[in-house]
Amino acid sequence: MLVEVKAVPRASRTRAVGVHDGALRVQIAAPPHAGQSNAALCAYLAGCAGVRPAGARLRRGSGGARKLIEIDGDPAALARALSRALPEAG
After folding, report:
1. Is 20 contained in some domain?
2. What residue numbers bound the domain in which 41 lies?
3. Is the pTM of this model over 0.70?
4. Nearest to 4 by CA among 86, 70, 64
5. H/E element holding 81?
């Protein structure tokens, strides 16, 4: 499954905060240096989706805020798992 992400590095903690302009917005605690935020983003999404860490890979956007992440697994199950990671609409 491919997930479009808007990454926001240097946050206080790593978390999904919503969907904006068709992309999952994720705040990342790691700095955007030497691929640290990309690795943290992939690890976070893998954890949310319940797949091994190597099951989430950066496909596009290593140097920008908009990224395309490939996650292994059943798309319907992954969509449910990622939606559970989002904050409740209040």
Report:
1. yes
2. 2-85
3. yes
4. 70
5. helix 75-85
Q: What is the pLDDT of residue 25?
A: 95
Beta strand 2-8 with 56-60 is: unpaired
The CATH number of the domain where 57 resides is what?
3.30.1200.10
Measure CA of the first residue to CA of the last residue in the chain; give whole Å.
28
Q: What are phi and psi of 66, to 5 degrees?
A: -90, 125
- State the Cα–Cα distance between residues 45 and 49, nearest whole angstrom: 6
6 in a structural domain: yes
User: Is 90 among the domain residues?
Assistant: no
40: helix, strand or coil: helix
- pLDDT, averaged across the chain: 91
Task: Please report how the helices 75-85 and 36-49 are oriented relative to each other, as an axis angle in degrees rounded to 10.
Answer: 110
Strands in 15-20's sheet, in edge-to-edge order, are 15-20, 23-27, 2-8, 66-71, 56-60
